[in-house]
Amino acid sequence: MDAPGSPNSSATIYDDEVFKMACDQFQVIADYLNIDQSDREWATYPKRAVAVTLPVHMDDGSTKAFQGYRVQHHIALGPTKGGTRFTLSLSMGETAALAMWMSWKCALAQLPYGGAKGGVAIDPTKLSRNELEAVSRRYMQEMIPFVGPHTDIMGPDMGTNEQIMAWFMDTYSVYMGYAVNEIVTGKPVAIGGTEGRREATGRGVVYLIERAMSMLKLNPEKCTAIVQGFGNVGSVAALSLAYKSGVKIVGISDAYTAIYNPKGIDVKAAEQHVLKKRHLKAFDQANHVDPNELLTMKCDVLIPAAVDRVITEKNAAKLQCRILAEAANGPTTPAADLILEQRWDEIFVIPDILCNAGGVIVSYFEWVQGLQSFLWTESEVTFTSHSGHGHRRRTRHQSQTSPRLVPMSGDKGSFDLRIPLLPLARG
Q1: Alpha helices in 217-357 (DSSP H)
Q2: Helix, strand, coil percent values for the chain (each to nearest 5)
Q3: Contacts (Cβ under 8 Å, ≥6 apart) of 35
Q4: From the CB of residue 188, how many other CB atoms can be counted at a distance below 10 Å?
């Protein structure tokens, strides 16, 4: 059988554009490393994939069946780790791609995990709280035979949050007969969560942007940024850039609205608006723009922090940023990568497997806390994420990979960060 993503590969349960994209990325690095063709297939296909049907009683008295998935990519480095997303478009193929990227991310950060991902194909905004709890608990109930603190640890992702992680933990704990808070990460601090976990991914994105700015000799207070996606990661990144780094935020967006104001956007006001309304529809209406054009508007830092495949061969040549920080998973297609490679002296790319690794690193701390009954403050977690002290030294790799791998020289090959990072991730 041919390797996934090759022209002659046969149909599988993973057939999906996102999985094909992840396989195409792997093929580029496999060619770069001269990996034997016979070793490529098993390196992309997951170790295990589970599909479940979730019958749920709705508030109107009806019963609806939802589709749930969990993919464990590989178990060579330890238990698998990965988020659980609730989104209507979720498929087995997309879940497998996300699990593969998670494997690369964990290996790059030197965490003792293989990659996993899971979720349910639903729109959580259309469910009542009772219905959302029922879906969450039924999903974990179906997953109990396949997950565990030493088998597969879940965490939050798109469409899920601390409350859903608490329902997951409670459902698993009821089955076991005692509290097992290490079964999930990203849960409330009151039941064993880690201080700073919710902000970890966004803070990690900003930390790496600051490192890139330092390398490129850019003054943050004279820079502008556009953040596509104003969810957990995007909003934290925007707030940190604005109030910690001094960067002017000129563009933000969510699934409904895009806003661009060259004079700057009050991101604190935007955050408060979203907390009340759950979207940006009615915020700063005088400065609404076409969401398709936001990514190509002028800025120094562009942060795609929403969904995959938003930077394509159609808009990659039009980007006007100096730094492209991939806060989302798979925001740039392989075809767009080729265009950005030609623009190596214009755009500095921080690839997703490095850029958004802060979340899984702090999740690792939370998992260790649960296993060993530790309790760390937010300042300890933040400091440890950016340093290399004691047994936590592995996290230093995430914060220093970008500057160490890409010297500021005229060597064109040294600027495509995705090329040197993926071989490291493969190990």
Answers
A1: 232-240, 267-277, 291-294, 334-342, 352-355
A2: 50, 15, 35
A3: 43
A4: 15
Q: Which residues on neighbouring strands pair with residue 225, listed in sequence order? A: 249, 301
**CATH number of the domain where residue 346 is located:** 3.40.50.720
Write the DSSP assignment of 257-298 as a string of letters: -EEE-TT---HHHHHHHHHHHSSSTTSSGGGEE-HHHHTTS-
Confidence (pLDDT) at 423: 57
Closest CA to 133 of 159, 156, 155, 163: 163
CA–CA distance, 313 with 55 (Å, rounded to integer): 41
The answer to whether residue 26 scores a pLDDT higher than 80 is yes
Residues contacting 356, CB < 8 A, separation 6+: 105, 201, 204, 205, 233, 326, 327, 328, 329
Cα–Cα distances in Å, from 368 out to 103, 208, 372?
A: 19, 25, 6
Question: For residue 412, which amino acid is it?
Answer: K
Q: Are 350 and 208 in contact (CB under 8 A)?
A: yes
pLDDT value of residue 395: 37
- Find the farthest-apart pair of alpha carbons in the chain and give their distance in angstroms, rounded: 66
Whole-number Å distance between alpha carbons of 124 and 107: 31
pTM: 0.86
Pairing of strands 258-260, 288-289: antiparallel
Q: Which of 138, 158, 193 is the last residue of a domain?
A: 193
- Would you say 153 and 367 are in contact if contact means Cβ atoms under 8 Å apart? yes
Q: Are residues 52 and 97 in the same domain?
A: yes
Within a domain: 79 = yes
Residue 263 pLDDT > 90: yes
Q: Quote the tokens at residue 234.
A: 């995007």
Catalytic residue ranges: 117
Name which of 230, 228, 210 is nearest 220 in CA terms. Answer: 210
Q: Please give the full DSSP string across 25-67, using - where no structure is assigned.
A: HHHHHHHHHT--GGGHHHHHS-SEEEEEEEEEE-TTS-EEEEE
Residue 364 lies in a domain: no
Whether 188 and 202 map to the same domain: the answer is no
Tell me: pLDDT of 401 over 50. no
Question: Domain span at residue 211?
Answer: 198-356
Tell me which of 356, 391, 411 is where a domain ends: 356
For residue 86, the SS3 value is strand
